[in-house]
Amino acid sequence: MNKLPTLEFEGYSTEDCSFEEEIRPDGYNVYRSKKYGISVSLSSAKQRQQFKGKDFLPLSHFLPMINTVPVESADFGEYGDYSQAFEPEVYSSPLETDSMDPFGITSKLSPVKSPSFQK
Amino acid sequence: MCGRWLERLVALWTLVFIRIVTGLAGEGRSVWKKDPHFSPVSETQMFLYDTFPKEFLWGVGTGAFQVEGSWRKDGKGSSIWDHFIHSEFQDADSTDASSDSYTLMDKDLSALDFLGVTFYQFSISWSRLFPTGVVTAPNAKGLQYYNTLIDSLLYRNIDPVVTLYHWDLPLMLQEKYGGWKNESVIDIFNDYATFCFQTFGDRVKYWITIHNPYLIAWHGYGTGVHAPGERGKITTVYSVGHNLIKAHAKVWHNYKERFQPYQKGMMSIVLGSHWIEPNKLEDALDISKCQQSMERVLGWFAKPIHGDGDYPEELKNELLFLPRFTEEEKNYIKGTADFFAFSFGPNNFKPPNSLPKMGQNLSLNLREVLNWIKLEYNSPRILIAENGWFTDSHVKTDDTTAIYMMKNFLNKVLQAIKYDNIDVFGYTAWSLLDGFEWQHAYNIRRGLFYVDFKSKKKERIPKSSALYYKQIIRENGFFPKESTSSLQAQFSCDFSWGITESVLKAESMASSPQFCDSSLYLWNVTGDGLLHKVKGVKLKTRPAQCTDFVSIKKQLDLLEKMKVTHYRFALDWSLILPNGDLSVVNRQVLRYYRCVVSEVLKLNVQSMVTLYYPTHAYLGLPGPLLQAGGWLNQSTAYAFQDYAALCFRELGDLVKLWITINEPNRLSDVYNKSSNDTYRAAHNLLIAHAMAWRVYDEQYRSFQYGKVSLSLHSDWAEPANPYSESHSKAANRFLQFEIGWFADPIFKTGDYPATMREYIGFKNRRGLSYSLLPSFTTEEKQLVKGAADFYALNHFTTRFVIHEPQNGSQYECDRDIQFLQDITCLSSPSRLAVVPWGVRKVLKWIKKTYGDIDIYITANGIDDQSLDNDELRNYYLGKYIQEVLKAYYIDKVKIKGYYAFKLTEEKSKPRFGFFTSDSKGKPSIKFYNNLISNNGFPADYSLCDPPSQKQCSFCLFISQKKPLIFFACCLFSTLILLLTIIVFHKRKRRKRFKAKSIQHTCFSF
Hints:
Chain A is largely without helices or strands. Chain A has a domain at 1-64: Trefoil (Trefoil (Acidic Fibroblast Growth Factor, subunit A)). Chain A is 8% helix and 10% strand. A two-stranded antiparallel ribbon of chain A has the order 1-2. Chain B is α/β, with parallel strands linked by helices. In chain B, 44% of the residues lie in helices and 14% in strands. Classes of the chains: A little secondary structure, B alpha/beta. Chains A and B meet through strand 3 and helix 2 of A and strand 8, strand 10, helix 15, helix 17 and strand 26 of B. Chain A: Residues 93-119 are annotated as: Disordered. Chain A: InterPro entries: IL1/FGF. Chain A: This is Fibroblast growth factor 19.
């Protein structure tokens, strides 16, 4: 193991910042970088030197927590067409001055939507 | 000395400079400097229910050439338009059709009577009076026509507002002089005007010289869209404009000097314009372009006449060929109008590519143009001399869009009067009759009255817009539909105040695995910071606890802040029974839900549990059931029954309110391949619900004492056009197809609504649809009928419904309905209309249709973009709950509970939540808290002291004085003990004493 990647920030790269979570049998989890094959560690360079060759770097085990960031619901095949990001429609429609309905208040086919069904 | 002189010079120049700058700026541009953070519920922006000023003038208008017809009759000369349509229009014959006002004056007069207007704005056909245009002996028949018209109007108390020139120049003047290009026409026009003042001036108090000179110059001599159809030369356009302004000024001075002193009339010129809004709200450059756009159209004529007598600076700078006014002319033209006559209609928006839009966006905001006029021309008195929109020619009397255009325009005028102090004194709806619409000929219609041009009698048939205008004139404004004033009252003391949440994502594992693991570990023995299992040692693990689920704690925090009495959430069927049958039951998930219920109970919050809550994105069926066809397969209903029974058994001791299925009527959006799919799925959903209800009724009710129902999506429907019978029928049909479809079988007949069956049958017979409603077997009927303990509704908005025949075997098509979005109505970012009275109407309708049953509103709420100031939600809650209260208090609808929608929202979806997706609370929580703690809208005192507190004042006392009571008890018991010891001791002593004395006596013997 030569030089370990550190957090010397030189711009964001997805590859550098992607880690895979792995839950250990003891209930802790480690985060491994696919690019470097090493797990995330909070140890200092000095501490790291002492543990050369071991399975895990010191201070690389974390307690798992329940995810509090809501995960987007998985799309449901053909019914998933409502999943695109919501944008308020208020200012979206331009005035159709050539039409007898310039504000577009009547729309041909608009299904009945329910906020508690459409999500 | 020298210094002072310099000072003066600088001061003078500064003054000059400032004047130039303000002159350039144009006061009107401040109209566009709006506050981008204005409140969506600000009173001055919302639809205004109020009346117009007492003396407000209500009128309607026509142009002679558009309605008179008879263009060659009775000695009338040709006008440039007669010539233009016969040379330019391909099917010139069809343009000979007309509404024939020249011969059918009585019909026009009855139409005016019908509306109840105070004035009629019409124009005199110049060539009908003077066939060549030059004033000589007038054409007697023409003269008689206008005399009779004016007299008949006055007889009916209708003021004539007379336009001298509405675009129909006598053809001779065009041919001889080149029309308005030639200055000599000015004097000829003045002669004609003089004749009119002499002849009609004794009876006419309002004169219009010219109607919309911009369109005459621009389209008559520029684009060639209008007669005389000259194209191309921009210099001609502006010299025509120049002559029109001079002609107007001349006629005004003529009237002012010779006629006004004794005729006492007023005169103006109708100026028309579009309106425009900047692309970017706060962009100064865009705002400048808007200002330029307005100056090029309205400013061109308005600044000379209503301003300083000269063209706008910008126009003069840009167009070097623009004719110049001499100082003398400026003074002559300046102020030649007694009021500002303004036209705002489709002609100024057409064709769109001919407008100086300057890259900005056209707008129909009448209130803002009026503000611009007020600022630019020093708050003039304004007559709206033409306003309205048009309909396509196929629209006959049901001109629904025209109603909403009129509603919008007129309310903007009212707002301008009430909030912006703009002196609008009259309004001309355009127009009285369908007629010739210039470049569109008869392809569009603008009348309040329909005329069938092919018919013989040419009856004037009032359109919906005529009925609407009539109503506004009668009421002199707008009256709210719902007139019951706000109630000060409360709901019943056992009313449940709830909050709704969708499916709770269950944690499939307790989140602290350490507590389930029986091994013992050593940490960091070798200094490696790792855990090492100690072999052979097994510890006792702690039994599972609800605190193991981290997410429940979060739910509790949110609920505590809501201060609700009830919490409505949904279970995840596919998680509990992954196989769809009872072969695998995920106990962990069930335990999670049980924990939610029991933990929530500790907060004194009851749960209302929804068993099945499908959404568009997540159908929520266990995989195997989905593969077997989902709700199209009847076996899904049986699987649901088993699932429901499981939930009743596992949770029923704690849950007293059950919803089997949330919005089964919305699954029509998912099973929409054909109407037969939709109806089949609905049928199975009904059976599934009914079987679940039966299971509860037969097996669990006797000891669990709960109630079971299903939540139906129940929005209200209102006819978009209140004057159209087909719309009223459509609104009723909508309710039957939406609500009755599920509610009739359960709460009423055990079968689908008759209206629905009949309508589908009717469409079948006409070959418009091959839909077939399933029929219930006798057993199914018995099963379904009565299978609910209360009516539960999710209500969000009111839809305005149009009857629109559709073709196709789809559920959406079967009901023949189209929706209309009322732009004058407050609506949310996701376009939900805020119509509070709609909830009262639907509640009354449910009571009327399904009897006096218990009702729960299981979801009601609105999306609001704002995170830190969700005023729209506050407004919505306040207004809707007030209407629910009216339904409860006045209409005696048995409403048992209200559940606000919803607790938390999802990311990048409409913001319906009281909490954001990362659990940040919004201000509306406080608002809802208040409603809950007041139990409605109490007056001064609360009728309903929570009875539990009264009963428990003793418990309260005990709980508060616990230590004291304990101490007192101790003291008391010690005292008793002491006393008994004393008594006991004394008795013993007495006994001993007695014994002694006996001994003594014995001895004494």
